[in-house]
Amino acid sequence: MSTGAIIALAGGGTLLVAAGLIWMVLWLRRSYLAEEKVSLARLHEELPKRGWTFAERDDSILEFCNRQYRDYYRPNPFQPFVGPPKVKAARNVITGIHRGRPFLAAVLDSYFRGEHAALRCIWVRTPAIRPGLSVHRAPALASTVNTALGWTIRSGDPELDRKFQISADDEAFAAIVLNPALTRFLLADEREFRGFQLVGDQFDVMDPINDHRDPAELIPALDLRCDILDRIPSNAWA
Predict the structure, then answer these.
(1) Most buried of the four, 26, 30, 95, 233, by CB within 10 Å?
(2) Could you tell me which residues come within 8 angstroms of residue 105 by beta carbon, excluding any fewer than 6 positions away?
(3) With contact defined as beta carbons under 8 Å apart, do 222 and 95 qualify?
């Protein structure tokens, strides 16, 4: 086969691959837009029934969000000089009340760790501001090492301490929150989530959410947050 034929075949193959990639990108884009249309239709159906509000962009919450991050941010022990996120814009903002608790769900366009990032939040407000608390799943070895270094604490429940890593600004408050009812829930609940965190008076869960605008995802996410808060005794907020 001549050199020209080889070049022609190679060039043709490259064009076919490029065409395939372009087709895939367009197909994914059309699929995303179709799913987005369905999600928004569901949302606009739920808004009046639930008394929720929705805005494609609402920068009036930026001061609140930045204050949350600024006042309650806890640096990663391995990155002590990395500051809190700086929120530049708030998109797809949903606010309302679910099971008697005010909530805020949004995508926050932020600058964090030297990069621009879209941070999704589904925050449920707690009755009062309390010390920071983070409880998340972690390998047993990592949890043991971090506890030995003084970066995390133990709850006193061997199984919980083996599966979860606990970071708390106040151990007494953490002990109240991680009572037997909540401990049993965290160990037994089969929903997919990695843990939760309390920052100021905003409570969030580390769960996989594809599109918070879709009530089929947002409502179960809010239920999970409320299920956890329901198991925290009232004296934790007194």
Answers:
(1) 95
(2) 92, 93, 94, 95, 121, 122, 123, 212, 218, 221
(3) no
Strand pairing report for 164-168 and 86-98: unpaired
Note the pLDDT of residue 146: 59
Dihedrals φ, ψ of 164, to 5°?
A: -125, 150
The owner of tokens 């964090």 is 112
- The predicted-structure confidence for 16-35, as pLDDT tens digits, reads as follows 555 555 545 543 445 445 66
Q: pLDDT under 70 in the chain at which residues?
A: 1-35, 77, 140-151
- What CA–CA distance (Å, rounded) separates 141 from 124? 32
- Check: CB of residue 196 under 8 Å from CB of residue 178: no
pTM metric for this prediction: 0.79
> What CA–CA distances, in Å, run from 188 to 136, 159, 181, 205, 218?
15, 11, 11, 16, 22
Residue with the two structure tokens 């996410």: 221
Residue 224 confidence (pLDDT):
97
Query: Looking at residue 24, what is its pLDDT?
Result: 52
Identify which of 177, 183, 167 has the alpha carbon closest to the alpha carbon of residue 133: 167
Q: Who's near 138: CB < 8 A, 6+ residues apart?
A: 146, 163, 164, 165
CA distance 220 to 218: 6
